[in-house]
Amino acid sequence: MKEIRTDLFRCPFCGFEARQLSMTREITQEDVKAAAKNDISKGHLIERVRRYNWPIEEAVTDPVRKHEKHGKWPEIAGQNDIPKATYYARVKSGWGHERAATEKVDRKKASRTRRKSGVTT
Fold it and tell me: By C-alpha distance, which of 58, 7, 60, 20 is closest to 36?
């Protein structure tokens, strides 16, 4: 008698075989070890499966996204009297790191709320 594997799906009409994703929510030690080989921590694996409802196979194999490194640019912005929040907002809006960290803040411009209300001094 042929052994039936639970992780394979075989179409009864055409014979196409595909691996099934597990529907179980149990994370095994093998899953944790496989995730560790892919630089995924146990906590991250658990969060992906339980909080975000990822299939275990995807949670184990999908690499963790790395955030963009800013390097020394936030410190350079601070030396140029540019608040870090302003630097990060500039980079997020599309400015280059160097321009965001070196271009002075024009403090003479009216604030957004004052411009909206029509108040000028």
Answer: 60
- E-strand ranges in the chain read 8-10, 17-19
Contact 67, 92 (CB under 8 A): no
Ramachandran assignment for 114, one of left (phi > 0), alpha (psi -120 to 50 degrees), beta (any other): alpha
What are the pLDDT digits (tens) for 63-72? 988 766 788 9
Q: What is the mean pLDDT of the chain?
A: 81
| Confidence (pLDDT) at 13 | 87
The secondary structure element, H or E, covering residue 78 is helix 73-79
Q: Which residues contact 62 (CB under 8 A, 6 or more apart)?
A: 54
Contacts for 50 with CB less than 8 Å, ≥ 6 apart: 25
Residues 80-109 pLDDT 10s: 999 999 999 999 999 999 999 999 988 776
Tell me the CA end-to-end span of the chain in Å, nearest whole number.
89
Percentage helix, strand, coil for the chain under 3-state DSSP, each rounded to 5: 45, 5, 50
